[in-house]
Amino acid sequence: MVLLDDLSQRLKLDDPEERRIIADVTWSQYEALLAELGDSLAYRVSYLDGVLEIVAPSRRHETGKTRIGDLLLIYFLETDTEFFPTGSTTFRSAERQVGTEPDESYCIGMDKEIPDLVIEVILTSGGINRLERFRRLGVREVWFWQNDRFSIYHLREDSAQLTDTYGYEAIAQSELLPDLDINLLSQCVQNPNSLAAAKEFRQGIRER
Which segments constitute the Putative restriction endonuclease domain (predicted)? Predict the structure, then answer.
């Protein structure tokens, strides 16, 4: 087992998107690491059944997740949708042996302990299974932004036939935000000009 007593030495990441996986980590060690990191934005930490994942987000990653968040804010304002942003809050459950920090997250309609929607920007594959993390926490809907497209998953109560996706069903349109044009959102996320993307997205919403 790799000990967690020298954080500064073990987290010197040459590649800003490098991912470190550490096995056989206890829950108390995971919580000690979170306490040591505090409010640091340098690393994202996830935990599942004794496996710890540490990622240092790259600029490209942060640009993508911020762009998505900015556009969703426009959608919420233009459609008068009640929302509560919870960002990259650390959500965890010792009983279920899971902890994670999504890229973006939201409660829809009313504030809750666990967000209804989480969004993850994926630049590299591998690591702890994301859908299993969010299933254990009870997140209703998960969006993955990967290869310039969204993949949307909604948690089902009857999940016996959805073992490959850990109880989530892949869907084409968000059920939490059914009026959101996912194709328009995808198109605007890819626009390298933030102001032009915001204007295009707002105009598209108003024309619907």
Answer: 27-183
Domain coverage including residue 19:
7-55
Whether 15 and 76 share a structural domain: no
DSSP 34: H
Cβ atoms of 149 and 68 within 8 Å: the answer is no
State the Cα–Cα distance between residues 72 and 78, nearest whole angstrom: 10
Instruction: State which of 20, 40, 55 marks the end of a domain.
Output: 55
pLDDT tens digits, residue range 113-134? Answer: 999 999 999 987 777 899 999 9
- Residue where the block lists tokens 């934005």: 41
Q: Is residue 115 a contact partner of residue 102, using CB atoms and an 8 Å limit?
A: yes
Question: In 10 A of CB 20, how many CB atoms?
Answer: 16
Q: Which residues contact 56 (CB under 8 A, 6 or more apart)?
A: 11, 13, 16, 17, 18, 42, 43, 44
User: Would you state the pLDDT for residue 137?
Assistant: 97
172 C-beta neighbours (distance < 10 Å), count: 9
**From the DSSP assignment, how many helices (H) and strands (E) are in the chain?**
6, 11
* Residues 14 and 104 occupy one common structural domain: no
- CA-nearest of 172, 176, 102, 85 to 137 is 102
Contact 33, 2 (CB under 8 A): no
Across the strands, what pairs with 108? Answer: 83
Contact 128, 46 (CB under 8 A): yes
pTM for the model: 0.88
